[in-house]
UniProtKB/TrEMBL annotation:
Membrane topology reported for the UniProt record: Multi-pass membrane protein
Transmembrane annotation, as ranges: 12-30, 65-84, 105-127, 139-164, 176-196, 202-221, 242-261, 312-334, 346-365, 385-403
Assembly, per entry: Forms a complex with DabA.
Domain NADH:quinone oxidoreductase/Mrp antiporter transmembrane, residue spans: 59-311
InterPro entries attached to this UniProt entry: ND/Mrp_TM, NU5C-like, Transporter_DabB
Organism: Rheinheimera aquimaris
Subcellular location: Cell membrane; Endomembrane system; Membrane
Function statement: Part of an energy-coupled inorganic carbon pump.
Similarity remark: Belongs to the inorganic carbon transporter (TC 9.A.2) DabB family.
NCBIfam families per UniProt: PRK08168.1 (NF006029)
Keywords: Cell membrane, Membrane, Transmembrane, Transmembrane helix, Transport
A Pfam family recorded for this sequence: Proton_antipo_M
Gene: dabB
Protein name: Probable inorganic carbon transporter subunit DabB
Domain of life of the native organism: Bacteria
Length: 455
């Protein structure tokens, strides 16, 4: 058993997360699906998916890990098709299945290369060898590149993201399970094989470029969406891309913290999506205020003070991570700074306390997790600068679209983003050419078109 299974500090944390999500989603499903005739089938598929995730996390053998990876996809497929009479759900599951099969094939090749290099299928044995070297052979580089591609596929990065956006047809518990748990498997894979990524500059560069562009585009596309669940789905694509960027930069501690925080938030957001509609409507009815340059400057200055103080307590190893914190805190503080009335300073103080609390949680999380999975310490300045520039571009374009989308150039950008850059259309055409979709006779594409018209 010791050769097949292995437990570590990182796996204990991940298993705790899986347990928490499993309990919450299971209880929610038991209530939400009350009265459904096929509820037992749903609960069996949910149990199988959770069990497959646990086996995959504990696996210490390349073959067992690969089989668990496949089992997760197959059991999740049953959940995605819980309502098999919905054509859109069928098409989304079909696209997801093709992406999953491609990822499984690439993972098999990557594991084969690792076996040929180290003459062992024991994952811990391979990791120990990788941790003790600073150079990579062609086989190791090939395995690292393939694992990066598998992670990009599993995390639904652009342009193969469409299935994740469209599986909102599935019941809400499935969305919560997928967006809070299963989608993280790409990042978990790379974190478990962190020493491999650390010595392969080729794989890290590929991962950085692909994930960065996916993050920026998905985050901008999200701002054009109205549907709560669709916005959350695009948010997942962007957040997964950001996590992969952190891994590519060697910021493994930050990536694990990001994974944990995103999982808890996204599970809450999907299971609470009904009330999210009310919050969104309330925000739309609130008096709109466009912040001025002085408001932005004041918020950025206060954010700089807070983030600078955090840096004194726990020095940042990356310009990109400090810039992300600066932008996040600025956005948190801006509403209180922008409202000019008698309660302005009280709101500013409360916002500062809130931001300071978030930074304190960040400090505590990084301090605890750095002992579990430390950073590589070999951050490339060029990669860090490139990521920082992309994040700054994202921030500027998002602000312009938020407040000046009516201007001709920005309006054209908004329309293009609202169409998702037409990336999914091209990906769908290619997907259906590779693996044609044949819906049941009673549920043809005509039915799908009719449903789209009625919607």
């Amino acid at each position: 058993m010791q050769a097949l299974l292995h437990i570590s500090a990182v796996k204990v944390i991940l298993l705790a997360l899986v347990t928490l999500l499993a309990v919450v989603i299971w209880r929610y499903s038991a209530v939400a699906l009350a009265g459904e005739t096929d509820k037992p089938r749903f609960m069996r598929a949910l149990a199988a998916t959770i069990a497959a995730v646990v086996v995959t996390l504990l696996a210490n053998h390349l073959v067992l890990f690969w089989l668990g990876w496949i089992a997760i996809s197959l059991s999740l497929q049953q959940l995605l098709l819980f309502y098999p009479d919905r054509p859109r759900a069928q098409l989304a599951a079909h696209k997801k299945a093709l992406s999953a099969r491609l990822g499984e094939a690439l993972l098999a090749v990557a594991f084969t290369l690792l076996y040929l290099q180290f003459d062992s299928a024991n994952i811990q044995h391979i990791i120990q060898h990788l941790a003790g070297t600073t150079t990579a052979s062609p086989l190791v580089h090939g395995a690292a590149v393939l694992l990066a591609l598998v992670a990009l596929l599993k995390c639904a990065q652009l342009p193969l993201h469409g299935w994740l956006i469209q599986v909102v047809e599935a019941p809400t518990p499935v969305s919560a399970l997928l967006h809070a748990g299963i989608i993280n498997l790409g990042g978990i894979l790379l974190l478990l094989f962190a020493p491999l990524m650390a010595i392969s500059g080729i794989a890290s560069a590929l991962l950085l470029v692909a994930a960065l562009f996916s993050t920026v585009l998905a985050a901008l596309i999200m701002t054009t969406r109205v549907s709560i669940k669709v916005r959350l789905a695009w948010s997942t694509v962007a957040q997964m891309g950001l996590m992969l960027v952190e891994i590519a930069l060697g910021l493994y501690t930050l990536a694990l913290l990001h994974l944990l925080a995103h999982s808890c938030y996204k599970a809450y957001a999907f299971l609470h999506s009904g009330n999210a509609v009310n919050h969104y409507l309330a925000a739309q009815l609130a008096e709109p205020t466009e912040p001025t340059v002085s408001h932005w400057s004041a918020a950025a200055l206060l954010a700089a003070v807070l983030v600078g103080s955090t840096h004194l307590l726990l020095p940042f190893t990356s310009l990109a991570s400090s810039m992300l914190l600066m932008m996040a805190v600025t956005v948190v503080l801006l509403p209180s700074v922008g409202r000019n009335d008698n309660l302005r300073w009280l709101r500013v103080m409360l916002a500062l306390l809130y931001a300071a609390g978030l930074l304190a949680l960040y400090l505590a999380g990084k301090t605890l997790l750095v002992k579990v999975i430390p950073d590589t310490g070999s951050l490339s300045f060029t990669a860090d600068l490139f990521a920082s520039a992309m994040f700054a571009t994202l921030f500027i374009v998002a602000v312009l679209l938020r407040y000046h989308a009516s201007k001709p150039l920005l309006n054209r950008v908004f329309i293009w983003l609202n169409a998702g850059g037409y990336l999914d259309e091209w990906a769908t055409r290619i997907t259906l050419k590779i693996w044609p979709y044949n819906p049941p006779a009673a549920k043809t594409i005509a039915t799908l078109a009719k449903q789209e018209t009625q919607a």
